[in-house]
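2.7 Reproducibility. Because tokenized structures are sensitive to small changes in the input, we list the exact sequence used for Cupin type-1 domain-containing protein, including any N-terminal residues retained from the expression construct. No trimming or masking was applied before prediction.
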Amino acid sequence: MISSILLAAALAATGVVGAPSPADVVAQLKAAPAQADRVKILDKDSDFVFNFWNNTAVKGAGGETISATVSNFPVLVNNGLSMTLGMLGPCGMNTPHTHPRATEMLYLVNGSITTGMIPENGERFIFNTVEAGSAQVFLQGSIHYQQNEGCDPILFVAALNSEDPGVLSATQRYFGLPPDVVGAALGGLGVEYVAGLESMIPDNIALGRQECLDRCKIKRENQPTKQRQSRDSNNALPGMTSTTWPSSMTRRYQPPSATPTASKYSKTGNVAVAISDDDHTVAANGGISNSVLITLAVVVGVLAVGYVVIAVVWLVRRRRNDAKKANRFYVRPEMTGRSLVPTDEPKYDTPQ
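Resulting structure tokens (single pass, no recycling of outputs):
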């Protein structure tokens, strides 16, 4: 109560009029020594009700989620729970994420979803198809996702055992690390590659698997990317600061839809040079290396020659067989086994 009085006095001194902010109420509740004191701070009956439809949603091209946590629902302080309402549109995906401080139990109201979870390093990938009326548990700290497999919207309700569960979107945050670190972890990708990939990461909820989109006749249009990691000098992308990287790390990334740039070797046809400089021309060929293209061309050429040879052999053998058939003569059944050399015996066709 003392903290409540002090807060009211501070608001009056600064000329602030009106109800305290949720953050102020949370501070009071955390300072209260007992539950009874917290109930007195929450002096309105409506303080115990949360209206999901009147709160800000996290939106993407594939749907939206609305969460009730301690930050927007102060009554949850010291009560160890929170809740999220999720609406996945047709083929919408709640992209891979973790809850660092809570275990989640998700109940599906309608439709059907597929889910995936990796609890930690060394553990198996856990995959399920969850139908309406069923629930699944996602372990604290695990990477998990939910995908609407239908062409109609679905609704889920997720309960978490912390008033402050936290959410860490795996893809957005991973690519928010310094680009040279991300590139090294991915086997040596250049920072321009990393920047190109990072620019394509959609906001959650995103459009999901291509098979579902094709089945539901949904086009993967440009999706919003406002949830990307904020940047400063420590994790800046190429071109954002004066930071420089070796030329071997600055090869540019080209999305699959981009028109491939003509290779500088396409006019000379110098195969040896193309192979030797293969590493520098992967992006120019739309992500396919010169050595792969040359190998494919050789294989196709060998197959074509093989088919021609087979066709010629078949035609020659057929003509020979036709010639043999033309030289054969017909022998009547009653002459079978008899000599065809003329003798003094009566001819077989002499009338009797």
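The mean pLDDT is 81.
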